[in-house]
Amino acid sequence: MWIDSRHQEAIERAALSIRHNMKKVSGDHWRPNYHISTEAFWMNDPNGFSTFKNEYHLFYQHHPYSAEWGPMFWGHVKSEDLVFWEHLPIALAPSEDYDLDGCFSGSTIEKDGFLYALYTGNVWTGNDQDTDLRQTQCLAVSEDGVHFNKSSKNPVISSAPNGDIHPHHFRDPKMWKHGDDYYCVVGSRTKDQQGQALLYRSKDLIDWHFMNVMAKSDGQLGYMWECPDFFHLDGQDVLMISPQGMKPKDYRYHNLHQAGYIQGKLDYETGMFSHGDFRLLDYGFDFYAPQTIQDFQGRRIMVAWMAMWESEMPEQKNNWAGAMTIPRELTIQDNEIISNPILEIEKLRENAVQYKNITVEGEHTFNQISGDSYELEVIIDAQASLTFGVKVRKSEALNQETLLMYNRAESLLELNRDRSGSGPKGSRVVPVKLHDNKLCLRIFIDKSSIEVFINNGEKVMSARIYPDQTAKGISFFSEKEITLIKFQKWDLNKSVSNGSIEGNSSS
Ligand code: FRU
């Protein structure tokens, strides 16, 4: 039933390419310590995030031949706790007529003890990557969660359905189970370029029946919805989407593409999703194509690609590109999704430092406290100050810093990377209310990234930054006196092991 050898050869060739290039990558000071990235070369979307046989598996879009996007493979890491990750052999490689130009994004699900992957087979039919493409949905299965065989029935969804549905842009299936049936939502657009999501149902993961256009853009939500994900959380149905082409509006939608959600109720009979407004999941620069799972403890956990299409990625010259966000736990509070780092991340903490009730006016540098891989938690009492904040990855000698500044008159928090070092610049702002005149920040720094969880996950901002390796300073500043009621910092240890370097090689 399963076709095998061409696929295995393509995987082995790719593994060799990675093995030959890993050394070049390992010395780079921008390599993340505790965020997932490739062993070498390019990464984009998280794929197939799943639990299987007591472990977490995360696959990702991967080009194992250069640090640029190219024909896509599925890279693979696994973990017992979402913190310590181990690289595994490439899971999917383009090898068949229907996926020759890429195994694009998709999802996995466990059924009868096997792990099934549903992904998009991509084939270029001409030179224009926007118009000349054929995308179909394809199935692969694994008994051990590591080695996958492609189905002889592929493609299991061989074309986009009829109707006001673009025939070619049809990708990124995300599966889930409801009752006795399997469902999947596929990213799509209408013939006149409005993003939409298509709902399918199946009994066996092989025969899929189109049910309906589950939801679509009202004209404001972009020309294509990539990487949809659907789940039930705290009494709500949630459809996460990554819309391409939304226009900037006030402080929102300034990245090339957006990632957010709409929530409401899915009618499993009609396949229609009634929902409210679109909301962002992250207000920084680098957050796209998030994917979620429900984990062993029933939590909803999300991981996203911490980069952005067409953004400058200085690490490419060092033979790698891209990283994942910290896994974030999602909950709903006052009808909005809030995201916080998974609890387990605290396992990485060491060298704790704690201060209480420190007053700051002007700028205060903590000489004993610095770093490039740490967590910093601070509760700031704003008192009467109108502007205040924190600078990280700071070097006075090099005039580098990454700035977080609160502006009370406008109730906006700004993340500014104009002086972050090499690479992309700019600033993003997000509305943030003080609670009891206090601002609470949890900041995660890792070599070439910053993630800021604001007021216990009410808002999040993520960005890649590329400071000099000596830029490690931390300072607080304020126009008038503020009090750092509690200020804690922990170094965070390395948590991603290179399977191949440590002899656990890709074979
Ligand atoms: C989203 C995306 C997906 C596609 C994949 C290709 O970032 O464009 O729609 O499947 O990346 O790598």
Write up what this structure looks like.
The protein is mainly beta and 507 residues long. It has two domains: 5-344, Glycosyl hydrolase domain, family 43 (Tachylectin-2, Chain A), CATH 2.115.10; 347-492, Jelly Rolls. It is built from one helix and 34 strands. The strands form six sheets. Strands 24, 25, 26, 27, 28, 29, 30, 31, 32 and 33 form a ten-stranded antiparallel β-sheet that branches. The protein has a six-stranded mixed β-sheet with strand order 21-2-3-4-5-34. It is globular. Mean pLDDT is 96; it is low at 500-507. The structure holds beta-D-fructofuranose. Beta-D-fructofuranose is lined by residues 44-45, 61, 72, 104-105, 120, 171-172, 226-227, 288-289. Beta-D-fructofuranose (FRU) binds at residues 44-45, 61, 72, 104-105, 120, 171-172, 226-227, 288-289.
Any chance you could write out the topology, listing elements then pairs?
Elements: E1 2-3, H1 5-26, E2 41-52, E3 55-63, E4 73-79, E5 85-92, E6 103-111, E7 114-124, E8 133-142, E9 149-151, E10 170-178, E11 181-189, E12 195-202, E13 208-216, E14 224-233, E15 236-244, E16 260-267, E17 272-275, E18 279-280, E19 288-294, E20 300-305, E21 320-321, E22 328-333, E23 336-341, E24 349-370, E25 373-381, E26 387-395, E27 400-407, E28 412-416, E29 427-431, E30 438-446, E31 449-454, E32 459-464, E33 473-492, E34 496-497
Parallel strand pairs: 2-21, 5-34
Antiparallel strand pairs: 1-9, 2-3, 3-4, 4-5, 6-7, 7-8, 8-9, 10-11, 11-12, 12-13, 14-15, 15-16, 16-17, 16-18, 19-20, 20-22, 22-23, 24-33, 25-30, 25-33, 26-27, 26-33, 27-28, 28-29, 30-31, 31-32
Bound molecules: beta-D-fructofuranose (FRU).
Domain Glycosyl hydrolase family 32 C-terminal: 344-490
Protein name: Sucrose-6-phosphate hydrolase
Domain Glycosyl hydrolase family 32 N-terminal: 35-341
